Amino acid sequence: GSGGSGGGVSGAEDGGAGVSGARVSGAGDSRAGVGGAVVSGAAVSGAAVSGAGGSVGGMRGDKGEQRTRKKEKKKKTKIELPHVQPLSREQLEVLDVTIKSLTQLTEVDFKERQGILQQILEIVRQQYPDAELTLFGSSANGFGLQGSDMDVCMRTKRKGLVPGHVVQRLRSVFGQQQGFSRICAVTDATVPIVKFRYKVNPSRFLKVDISLENTLAIHNTCLLRTYVAIDPRVKYLGCFVKYFAKTCDIGDAACGSLSSYAYILMMLHYLQRTSPPIIPNLQQLCRTSETNKIEDWDCWYFDDLEKLATVWPQHKTNKQSLAELWLGFFQYYLQRFDFVCNTVQIHSLEPVTKSKRGWAGKFLCIQDPFRLNYNLGSTVGKRKEESILECFANGYHHFGSPVLHNVVRNQLLPYYFNPHKLKSAKPQPRHQDVCQKCGKMGHNKVDCPSKGED
Length: 454
Prior knowledge:
The protein is an alpha+beta fold. It is built from 13 helices and nine strands. It has helices at residues 63-74, 89-101, 107-124, 163-174, 215-230, 232-247, 260-271, 308-311, 322-336, 354-357, 382-399, 412-416, 419-422; strands at residues 42-43, 78-79, 132-136, 150-155, 180-186, 193-201, 204-212, 293-294, 297-298. Residues 1-61 and 73-78 have low confidence and may be disordered.
């Protein structure tokens, strides 16, 4: 399903954002996943990617976009990947097994979190009797890993509440309860939150973040959960890219990098553009004049999956393995996606340019699927952008290389996720607003949640 021996690992295209003349051969061959591929010209610091033919396709745009491109070309830094030998079918199966071995949240875990949510709700209602608590994020979207934080949205019908005051009050209330520790109220964030550790049992704690009236996040969760239900590979690959980002120290927005949610969107964007696609664009599929307005944003999407095969003929036509798709993910962003002109987004199959959103001066742009003016990469600095793409290049090489013969099967996960093989060698930037104790943004040293038990 990848288009034959001349195609890319995934055959992914981004409507004019591809590399002129660049390709990875052997992806469609039954013997190989990345046959003889050399990733050349992968831009690190905002430069367009140049391949075998030299220039990037799809160079059209307005004058502002052209000026941005010229500036970015001046900053060009390239990562040259060494030649990658074709992986045998056996080696691809080894990588497949590893991807599936990552420990994810189970139905039992979900029920446990629902029970914890109910206990927290009883405490919250002592202060806010009409409050409702809803799980969102990795606890509910299908991309949860063992130990993932528990994200909670608090909603109430009471008018005139100041979110910053509410989280401060919740901090005080939780501080009087048994089992709550490391409580921190983050009042100056766009969405104020209260963070704490909840004692599940004597040996296990769960990190919990409660935000107020974060309704769009709930709808984002439902959208992602619908994508997960379409194809099991979506869940596996989404969890794998989250674990990859965590291993490389590039997956924490509080430290000036991208959030795990941003990497999920990058994976979904790619899976919409494989050939044939793994998933459709649910926000465009069977689109009518119907809308679902939440906070002035249209949150409509197709969710009648029982009819999916009827309305989307490409359903289940892509037969690529998890390993081929995983390697194709790196190849797509290193060689094919045009970071200079386009945004990473999942709400449209057509390219969305940065100039359209007013983001022409920013290199790494990842657009929220509903709140279209929100760029999840807005706080990522140039050096961190370079680190992210360097980690992608390291990942392409490391995962695309044959596993050493002396690695036993139960050691495959630590073998593949060796930080020394994957992490960027560049010194990591320090944001001016980071906590001097834990290195994260959003609070100061006095209020740091890691300072110990309250």
